[in-house]
Amino acid sequence: MMAPQGRQEASKGSGMVAGGVTRIFVEGADLSFAPRKWPHQARSEATIDAILEATAQLLETGRSFSTNAIAERAGVGIATLYQYFENKESVVAALSRRVRETLVHDVASLLETACSLPLSEGVRCLVVAAVKADKSRPSLTVRLDRLEAALSLEADHLLVAAELCTVVASFLKCQGIVQENTAKILADDLCTITGALIDAAHNRQMPIDDFLIDRITRRLAAIIQSAL
Fold it and tell me: Which strand (E) or helix (H) includes residue 21?
C-alpha cells in the first residue's frame, strides 16, 4: 500500500522515544491534539513517560478522570503537565501515539526473525508481536480504541497502517512475492484482516489468546500461500 498523504511531513526530524522505539509522530507534524511542548532531554522524556503511564493506568480503571488525577498519579505538578499538554484529550492522543509507535516497533523488530522461518511460523511471529499490547493490557487497548474514535485520529491510523504495511510487504518479499505492487496490496489486505479479527474479538469480549493468534495465523498464511 502506498503511504498516505502527509506521511513525508510527519517523518521530519525522526528521532527516538523511550525504549529505542522509532518515532512516527514527531515535532512539526500536522497532528490533532499535538503536544504544546515536545521533550528534548532525558528528564523531560521521563516526565512525559510518567504522565502517559499514569494516563494508561487511569484508563484501565474504567472510570472518568481529570488532568489533576493524571498529574497526581504521575507524581508531577499540574503546571508541569500543562507545560506539555493543553488538555486531557491531548494527553490521551499522545498515549495513543506511543502505543501505536510501540506496535510498529514490536512488529518491525521481528521482521528478520520472521523471514528466517517457514511461512506459517513467520506469520505467527509477526501476529504475536501485533497483538502484544492487546494481550498484555486488553482493557487499555479497548478504552483507547473508543477514545481514538471520539478524538477523530484517523490520520494517525493511516500513518501507522502505512508503517505496518511496509514491514509486512518486506516479509512477503522474503517469502517470494517479489513484485513490489503486489506485495504492498497484499500487505494492506493482511493488515486489514488482522485488525478486523482483533476488533471482532474485542467486540465479543473474547480473550486475545493463543487460540485467536493461531486462527489469525492460519487465515493469513493461507492467503499468502495462495498468492505464491
Answer: strand 21-22
